[in-house]
Amino acid sequence: MSKAVEVRPMTFYPEVLARIAPDLSMQRHLSLGLRPSLRASEEFRNVEISDGKLSCASKETVNRSGNNILGSNVLKCGKTMIVTSITGGVVEENVPVEQDDEEPALENSDADRASQFGCIYPVVEVECGRAGAPTDEEMTLSQRIYNCFLHSGLLSKEALKVSVGVKSTNADGQASIQYPDEKDSTDLAKSFKPRRKWTYVLYAKIQVFSRDGPLFELCWNSLIYALQTTQLPRAFVDERTTDLKIPVSMRGRSAAIRETFDILCDPVKFQPLKLNAENISFASNFAVIELDPEAQLPKDDDDMQVDSPTSVLLADIQGEAEEASVSSIVSVVTGTAGNMKHFKAIGGDSKITLDMIKKSIKLAKLRSSDLEGKS
Amino acid sequence: MLFAQTGVLELVDGSCKLQCGETTVMCSVTGPIEPKARQELPAQLALEIVVRPCRGVPSTREKLLEDQVRGVVTPVLARYLYPRQLAQLCFQILESGEPEELYSSKELSACINAAFLALVDAGIGIQASFASVCLSILEDGQRLLVNPSQAELIESRSTHVLALQLAAGAKKVENLLLLESYGDFDEQTLLQVLQTGEEACVKTALELRKVIEQKLQKDFVWR
Amino acid sequence: MSTMILPGDEFHLESRENVLLGPGAYCDPRNQKVQPVTAGFEVVTETKKNVSVHVEHNSKRYIPAVGDLVVGLITGSFSDSYRVSLSNFSTPVTLSYMAFPNASKKNRPSLKVGDLVYARVCKADKELEAEVECVDSSTGKDAGFGLLEGGTIAEVSLAFCRELTFNGDYPLLSLLAKNAQFEVAIGINGKVWFKCDDIRHTMACYRSITECEHRTQSEHKSIISKHFKTLLNSVP
Amino acid sequence: MAKEIEISTSEAKFLIEALRQGLRSDSRKFEETRDVGIKFGKDYGDVTVTMGKTKVHCRISCNIAQPYEDRPFEGLFFISTETSPMAGPQFENGNNTGEDEVLCSRIIEKAVRRSGALDVEGLCIVAGSKCWAVRADVHFLNCDGGFIDVSCIAVMCGLLHFRKPDVTISGEQVTIHPVEEREPVPLGVLHVPICVTFSFFNPEDAEENIKGESNNEICLLDATLKEELLRDGTLTVTLNKNREVVQVSKAGGLPMDALTLMDCCHKAFKITETLTDQINEELKLDAESRNKYAALLSSENARVS
């Protein structure tokens, strides 16, 4: 009845095909032995870093006033740029069970591992031109970085304790600040034992520009670099701090509210943040994808029929085609000496075999030593 | 070790209450129902997962748990059976059984097992059985514990959550669904975790299977 | 009952050629393997030509399938069709104005929002909206379809409804009939509509059906007599 | 609530007609409430309350916080009643602006927090700087009507059952003793408010009642979900054991005769009494089961030489 409609095969440019049918474009590339990001299957992207001279404690004297960034890092990996800035605060610890300073904290003996380590509060922002509430991805990234950092044991609680200095103004009104652990400090400073304890709190703001694939590994590496440049300001309390007792009476109840003077940060003196160097670790991600027989390009019959492997391990996923068509992901955070901090494997639709896991751990170690060399 | 019962709620299609060690989780499944416009997927079943903590308001910690459960459940669901439909999975943690600010592995493992029972209770198509187990390695690095108690968990060097897809009457391991490890461990420990975890998962799957047998007895009581 | 089966187990199917898939069985497009997707009891029926396999399982959420007789609730009316809900929160189905006996462009059916209809599912593929019809397409007559006036609905599980419909000698309905005359329309979507002339009878039937679903067959007789006794002789 | 439970007109007519003849679908009388099940969990302050099929879980927790500047002598007390799709698909996750959810959390807020059921001044540790922040999280597990009544009972049971760690203050030093070291301390609960919800049905059609001759509305107690969807008016009265009215909420709906308000309160008081006794009974049972060994070791029993 209607004349035969001849159907011409539609052809698309590679990037357009990557967006319309990511898994088809992926399989086509794999059948040629390539991958959409045109890197070898186990080749990582190059990473360049700099501390971006953002932090107020960086070597060049960045103008001090108003710059409260303690450590920073700018990481460029492929198309993606990540800017991490570390800020901090001082918080009074309401010590649950009272301890004198000398005898070590009895209550949390070394057994209770996780609560010995300090943590950092990361906030990840993926800049995609849309302001508004954090998306699910940003929230899961921040929480995953928080969990991984806490359990990696990179930062012990001792490193965050504030050793309080004292500011004394001698006769001619000229003020000087001494710190107990400094060599030239007077005995007054050494004898100054504050009853209240303060700790530093660290926040990390991780901004991602031009997102181009899984982000957890890049954010983690950038955070580690930033922490290595972090300097904590010294803090002191004025000698004449008198806890002002303000009598307050309210509805027949009267009590003296203790108005306490807060601790001040020394704008000049900084001390580097002590990290447990052996726990420094870097992240890398891998994906397992199975070759779909039907989607292979028609092989020209002259090349010999090599039995192509059924599934391929790709390192460092990049680009929309790869990220959309892959569902089995392996993410490894490891130090150079093979001491792993975090390992995540999601089964997805293809099979993750044991030797895939071994191979990815081996590659992750190589990547980690390469990244460590950079800092 | 694991106590569970299905069909505990009325208005939802499938539900279960599961207690594993000191962690108690209640899971409810509703679906396939009509999705909201923004949730609809053209060819497959959309998943809405909600995790609510036992204390306080849901935060990013629960958002990460939702993402992990989604990663486990999505490949197992027969998604293409219900195009443009929605399934709602709700988890209410009744007892966390671990210090919430530091750990979430026991809750994750309990949520995965509860999800399996609730999905089966609701009759939504799943392609294979799956089970999950939480492991931890003690401070001295040798002893590996399956489903550790709160005290053991605190003293452990590393904590692992393993979820496996099982076939042939929960005897044969088909595929690794999730392996999430935090803490200090090396490759050799990880392989040992995988090995011991496999046996523990098979044992858990058999326990889940018994719970389902009770459910089937209850379902056809009127016959 | 035949053997219990869970997702992930194997069907006991020796011959591989044309297997008819019933509910609960799914053929994975990638590896063409037939596998169970719900937990229940495996039922394999061999006939000369082919093998049919399905999993007998019980659930609450109804998924439309062609040929099912269902009780629907009219939730909206449009220019050419009604919107009918088969179960709460599920995607609504359409009942076109033409799907009535001796329907024509002019005389539109007289159903309002909130009415109950007894209908048959005529189109139900998963991607599109399902369609129901209130006319027996072969004979053109209403064959019991159409508006269900008054009475009430008991919501029960799907397997229980199938049992009431297809298993003729299931005692429940006959036991009820001894105590009250009633009109009944059983929807495979888990909704049993029934109407007696007196409110107390209807209430007694409602309570008996909802309770019998959770009790063994032996107790049905005592449950029904208990309900009818409490309701009928407690004259206000 | 975006999605609704739809009810057919014939079902509605049937229920109303049954009510007119004094029948309810679960064979209860009008003034009869469903039996209340209270089950305490392992930890202090963990309670699951069921009323018929409606099931609610409440969890009480506490931590150290800074009191508000304008109230330096008082601790903090929060109640969160968030519904999730687990209670029923008609509840949307995270969006609590539905009319019923707002009404429920407002009434619980007025009944428990505003009425001073919990002695917040007892929560103060160091005036102006440290105090206890008590938090009650109500999780709705299954919804078959009566959410307000069940969550009020759940919060009160939780508060009565909860124990917070013991604290000693020496001058500026605040020591919080872990539970293993010192027996935890109960909260100061001043009175036990119990909410009772009445549902009103107008058997005749609307116009006739506006003229007011026949005001024989039907008044039900503790409505199930179906009855809640079909009711024309609702009244929630909160009383405590010493016969004081804590709060009354009549949010629109069918206007009712003023005198019925009084006998609703009387009916509610009877229920409050039985429920308060049941709560105390359950608490005693739980206390005994918790330290059944204490009875053996307690100093009162005779010294065995």
Outline of the structure:
The complex is a heterotetramer of chains A (375), B (223), C (236) and D (305). Chain C is an alpha+beta fold and 236 residues long.
Please provide a written account of the structure:
The complex is a heterotetramer of chains A (375), B (223), C (236) and D (305). Helices cover 21% and strands 30% of the residues of chain A. Chain A has 375 residues and is of the alpha+beta class. Chain A folds into two domains: 14-41 and 282-373, GHMP Kinase, N-terminal domain (Ribosomal Protein S5, domain 2); 64-94 and 114-165 and 193-274, Ribosomal Protein S5, domain 2. In chain A, the strands form four sheets. A five-stranded mixed beta sheet of chain A has the order 1-2-3-7-4. In chain A, strands 6-5-8-11 form a four-stranded mixed beta sheet, with no helix packed on it. In chain A, α1 (14-20) crosses α2. The radius of gyration of chain A is 28 Å and the shape is elongated. Chain B has one domain: Ribosomal Protein S5, domain 2 (2-Layer Sandwich). Chain B has four helices and nine strands, in the order ββββαβαββαββα. Chain D is elongated. Chain D has helices at residues 9-20, 99-114, 147-161, 206-211, 225-230, 258-290, 292-297, and strands at residues 36-40, 46-51, 54-65, 76-82, 124-126, 130-142, 163-164, 167-170, 173-176, 185-186, 194-201, 218-221, 233-239, 245-249. Chain D has seven helices and 14 strands. Chain D has 305 residues and is an alpha+beta fold. Chains in contact: A-B, A-D, B-C, B-D, C-D. At the A-D interface, β10 of A face β9 of D.
Itemize the secondary structure elements and their pairings.
The complex is a heterotetramer of chains A (375), B (223), C (236) and D (305).
Chain B lengths: L1 E5 L7 E7 L2 E11 L12 E7 L7 H17 L9 E10 L9 H18 L6 E10 L5 E3 L3 H5 L1 E12 L4 E14 L1 H33 L4
Parallel strand pairs in B: 4-5
Antiparallel strand pairs in B: 1-2, 2-3, 3-5, 6-7, 6-8, 8-9
Helix pairs in contact in B: 1-2, 2-4
Chain C lengths: L3 E2 L13 E3 L3 E4 L4 E4 L3 E7 L4 E6 L12 E9 L3 E5 L7 E4 L19 E8 L7 E3 L12 E3 L3 E4 L2 H9 L4 H9 L3 E5 L3 E5 L3 H14 L4 H17 L3
Parallel strand pairs in C: 2-6, 9-11
Antiparallel strand pairs in C: 1-5, 3-4, 5-6, 7-8, 7-10, 8-9, 10-11, 10-12, 13-15, 14-15
Helix pairs in contact in C: 2-4, 3-4
Chain D lengths: L8 H12 L15 E5 L5 E6 L2 E12 L10 E7 L16 H16 L9 E3 L3 E13 L4 H15 L1 E2 L2 E4 L2 E4 L8 E2 L7 E8 L4 H6 L6 E4 L3 H6 L2 E7 L5 E5 L8 H33 L1 H6 L8
Parallel strand pairs in D: 4-6
Antiparallel strand pairs in D: 1-2, 2-3, 3-6, 5-6, 7-10, 8-9, 11-12, 11-13, 13-14
CA-atom Rg of chain D in angstroms: 22 Å
Largest interface: B-C, 40 and 40 residues
Topology pattern of chain D, helix = H, strand = E: HEEEEHEEHEEEEEHEHEEHH
Shape type of chain C: flat
DSSP summary, beta strand count of chain D: 14
The fraction of residues in strands of chain D falls at: 25-35%
Instruction: Report low-confidence residues of chain C grouped into runs of 5 or more.
Output: none
Strand content of chain C: 25-35%
N-to-C terminal Cα separation of chain D, in Å? 70 Å
As laid out across the biggest beta sheet of chain C, the strand order is 7-8-9-11-10
Helix content of chain C: 10-25%
Please give the radius of gyration of chain C in angstroms.
20 Å
Number of domains of chain D: 1
Quaternary form = heterotetramer
CATH structural architecture of chain D: 2-Layer Sandwich
- Mean pLDDT of chain C, to the nearest integer, reads 88
- Along the chain, the helix and strand elements of chain C come as EEEEEEEEEEEEEHHEEHH
